[in-house]
Amino acid sequence: MPSCRKATTRISISPTDSVWLRWAVVGGVVLMAVLLHGSRPGAEEPGTRPDQVAGFMRAKLAHAQNVLEGLTVEDYELIDKAAQELSLASEDASWQVLQTEDYARQSAEFRRSCDSLRKAARERNLDGAALAWMEVTMKCVQCHKYVRDEGR
Asked: Whole-prediction pTM value?
């Protein structure tokens, strides 16, 4: 007797892919929360208005969202471009909220992490890009913590 069950197509994600994707999403959410929080008040460079810093932080957030979107839809060009924009943003005067050696070191580490993300995207390595995105996110969290702690 023929079966009345309807044939379905099931898309399977391996457990490894699922873990990487989950971490990429978590990393993106954490980064967005950190970027939305912004820097500590009063940490802006002299002559920089708070609304300029807020606008700069929104631009960083948009780039971060583009990285996350690229990871979720496997758009390597979007990941590469957004990572490049994040790296370039770290060289902008609005980024330089502190003039310390440690802050400069953290900014350089952030740029290296963005470069790793770009490299993985150019190699079309989704797992590598997801891992590099977690590293970028951790650099953001560490630096924002440093900036907040310097204000205490």
From this structure: 0.67
CATH class of 15-150: mainly alpha
Ordered by start, the domain boundaries in the chain are 15-150
> Whole-angstrom Cα distance, residue 104 to residue 96?
8
Question: Which pair of structure tokens corresponds to residue 61?
Answer: 């957030």
**Closest to 109 in 3D by CA, of 135, 147, 83:** 135
Burial 86-97 (b: 16+ CB within 10 A, else e): bbebbeeebbeb
Q: Tell which residue, 120, 151, 122, 149, has the closest CA to residue 134.
A: 120
Residue by residue, DSSP assigns 114-146 as HHHHHHHHHTT-HHHHHHHHHHHHHHHHHHHHH
Residue 149: DSSP 8-state:
H
The predicted-structure confidence for 28-55, as pLDDT tens digits, reads as follows: 555 555 544 444 344 444 444 556 667 7
